[in-house]
Automatic annotation (TrEMBL):
Belongs to the HAM1 NTPase family. It is an enzyme of class 3 (hydrolase). HAMAP family: Non_canon_purine_NTPase. Its cofactor is Mg(2+). GO terms for molecular function: ITP diphosphatase activity. This is dITP/XTP pyrophosphatase. Substrate binds at residues 8-13, 72, 151-154, 174, 179-180. Homodimer. It comes from Peptoniphilus gorbachii. Its EC number is 3.6.1.66. Pyrophosphatase that catalyzes the hydrolysis of nucleoside triphosphates to their monophosphate derivatives, with a high preference for the non-canonical purine nucleotides XTP (xanthosine triphosphate), dITP (deoxyinosine triphosphate) and ITP. Seems to function as a house-cleaning enzyme that removes non-canonical purine nucleotides from the nucleotide pool, thus preventing their incorporation into DNA/RNA and avoiding chromosomal lesions. InterPro entries: dITP/XTP_pyrophosphatase, ITPase-like_fam, RdgB/HAM1. Mg(2+) binds at residue 71.
Length: 194
């Protein structure tokens, strides 16, 4: 069975990827399941791709099996793509509530509220081939926070084709359409052909 180590121990991410890849003959490990992976990577790249590659490469140097890293950002068109690669630290610290408030404030006078989430995944296989995979979820930024579920920018993001935010959706409903699940489904398609 193929073994893939993830750059995270985030339980939600591990569960989601295990669910989506359940039909494929792979075993997914969190970072802390493997010895020697307790290193820090500074995510200072200019793009999601750069950051995901940095995280994946640091792991690939240390193990022989396949590794996988991801990076996600929310891109707002009227703000020239901000917060984008800076989504986690938009309000200069990792505080989801402050990040959302800053974004709503910066969009106060804008008519165009269109935005998209993008997840970049980098898989580095056993032969050290770099395989990039993307998933995008288009939508718009709401006028105010709504909903209690989710995390990050979920309570201010309304996905295209819906009139409620990610935070007003059930976990299953969001996972049907989210950027991350789209990226993971693209990964599943790639893995099943490799
Ligand atoms: P990460 O690359 O998964 O760590 O995500 C970077 C930042 O984007 C996080 O700190 C969150 O604020 C935000 N983010 C990532 N995924 C989501 C999501 O599915 N919903 C809302 N916010 C997200």
């Amino acid at each position: 069975m193929r073994k893939i180590v993830l750059s995270t121990d985030n339980k939600n991410k591990l569960r989601e990827i295990r669910e989506i890849l359940e039909d494929i003959d792979v075993k997914i490990y969190g970072k802390s399941d493997i010895d020697g992976m307790d290193f820090e990577v500074i995510e200072d790249g200019d793009t999601l791709y750069d950051n995901a590659l940095k995280k994946a490469s640091a792991m690939a140097e240390r193990v022989d099996c396949a590794v996988l890293a991801d990076d996600t950002g929310l891109f707002v068109n009227a703000l020239a793509g901000e917060p984008g690669v800076h989504s986690a630290r938009y309000a200069s610290e990792h505080d989801d509530k402050k990040n959302r408030e800053k974004l709503l404030n910066n969009l106060k006078d804008k008519d165009d509220r269109s935005a998209y989430f993008k997840t970049e995944i980098i898989l580095i296989d056993e032969e050290k081939n770099i395989i990039p995979i993307e998933g995008v979820c288009p939508g718009k930024i709401s006028l105010e926070e709504k909903g209690e579920n989710g995390f990050g920018y979920d309570s201010i993001f309304i996905p295209e084709g819906f009139d409620k935010t990610f935070a007003e959706m059930s976990h299953e409903e969001k996972n049907e359409i989210s950027h991350r699940s789209r990226a993971l489904k693209n990964l599943r398609d790639k893995l099943s052909k490799l």
